[in-house]
Design a protein that fits this description.
Number of domains: 2
CATH class of the largest domain: Alpha Beta
Radius of gyration: 21 Å
Helix content: 40-55%
CATH topology of the largest domain: Aspartate Aminotransferase, domain 2
Structural class: alpha/beta
Shape: globular
Number of strands: 15
Bound molecules: pyridoxal-5'-phosphate
Distance between the termini: 40 Å
């Protein structure tokens, strides 16, 4: 990474007073404001400089009326997917939606019926549960297995549940919060099962650009047979820190699925994109390669620092290999306190805000999630504070 890039990422940026959820809403979520915010999944890094320039330029026009998809946006996204992920998609497979969570809800509503069974793999991102329950679908859980080599899927359990009538599965790839980057073999095995039992896979790939140590994201649509049974949800917002601009993509090669989804978007009146979201995404996908590489490297270094610190100073806190995402999934069960007592210690003694594992379901009890997409100084202070709080209790 160029020194200039490192300085850009290292520089503290005060986000207080920008109405940002991560820093300004600490009081609402944690009961106090004086915490280091290491929770919600956005980054404390300024985005790609060219994105800022493009937004400023457009803002100067001062007319922000209704807009539409642009061919430039499709091409930029197709270019990114091919260049960075080796995936070729066709322009008309892409539908735009305000957010990946919105898209999850659209998929559930458009592609399943009330009482249909939908499978998820806990511990997993909270809104997966909500998407299933909100529409009166039946929640089927196939928990991931945690063993000495880390987290894996339970294929016997998946097959048994697929064969008893599951209609849809919502996959998290890479997985938030456990940090797995599923291998091609693991995903192909899943797709083969889905094809055998007629299950539709909705693959949430919002974290796809954050992979480390040679782990490579396999895009669901690159797998044999997957284009018949899968819809891919993706977004530049996580990769380039644009979440407040609200823009994401639904990529559906199958014409019937795509028609159902585009009718759903029309029903929800979600077809006219946000001008700034579109410009930011187009520019980031066109110009963001160097920035992205630097951020991934920086986060990997933060992860390595945190692993070293835990090993040396806090061996009672466990973590499985984090192959992707900028979110570290930490096992506090060895600390010898209840989940609630750990939360109290983190907030009121260490003065740090981590996500409670319970946001990811009951299997997250005893676990907490730490956001590593922040200047190194925040990671150091967070771990120092946790260490002091645990040692002095
Ligand atoms: C797996 C996953 N999906 C979706 C989202 C949110 O996506 P959006 O802001 O586009 O709704 C997040 C945010 O943390 C996430 O981790």
């Amino acid at each position: 990474m160029r020194q200039e890039m490192r300085d850009y990422l290292d520089a503290p940026v005060d986000r207080h007073g920008t109405n940002c959820e991560k820093w300004d809403l600490l009081g609402k979520h944690y009961g106090r404001d004086d915490l280091i915010a290491m929770w919600v999944a956005d980054m404390d890094f300024r985005t790609v400089p060219q994105v800022r320039e493009a937004l400023v330029k457009r803002a100067e026009h001062a007319i922000y009326g209704y807009t539409d998809d642009s061919e430039a946006e499709h091409e930029a996204e197709m270019g990114w997917l091919e260049r960075r992920h080796g995936l070729k998609v066709e322009s008309d497979w892409i539908l735009y939606s305000p957010g990946v969570v919105d898209s999850l809800f659209f998929c559930v509503d458009a592609l399943t019926k009330p009482e249909d069974a939908i499978l998820i793999q806990p511990p997993v991102y909270g809104p997966f549960y909500q998407a299933v329950k909100l529409y009166g679908r039946r929640l089927v859980e196939s928990p991931l297995i945690y063993g000495p080599s880390g987290w894996r899927m339970d294929y016997d359990d998946l097959e048994q549940k697929f064969s008893s009538g599951v209609r849809m599965m919502i996959l998290c790839s890479p997985h938030n919060p456990v940090g797995r980057v599923w291998t091609r073999e693991e995903l192909q095995k899943l797709v083969d099962l889905a094809l055998r039992y007629g299950v539709l896979i909705i693959s949430d790939e919002i974290h796809a650009d954050f992979t480390f140590d040679g782990h490579r994201q396999t895009r669901i649509l690159a797998l044999d047979g997957a284009q018949r049974c899968s819809v891919m949800l993706t977004s530049a917002t996580k990769s380039f820190n644009l979440a407040g601009l609200r823009q994401s993509s639904i990529i559906a090669p199958d014409a019937a699925l795509r028609k159902a989804l585009s009718d759903e978007l029309a029903r929800a009146h979600a077809t006219s994109p946000n001008i700034f979201g579109s410009i930011a995404q187009t520019t980031a996908y066109r110009c963001g390669d160097e920035w992205m590489d630097a951020v991934v490297e920086y986060v990997r270094e933060n992860r390595d620092f945190a692993i070293g610190f835990l090993r040396e100073r806090l061996p009672e806190i466990g973590c499985a290999p984090q192959e992707g995402t900028y979110l570290m999934w930490l096992d506090f069960s060895g600390v010898g306190l209840s989940h609630e007592a750990v939360m109290d210690l983190l907030v009121n003694r260490a003065r740090v805000a981590l996500n409670s594992g319970l946001f990811f379901g009951e299997t997250g009890r005893g676990w907490f999630r730490m956001n590593l997409a922040t200047p190194r100084a925040n990671v150091e202070r967070t771990l120092e504070n946790i260490s002091k709080a645990i040692r002095s209790r």
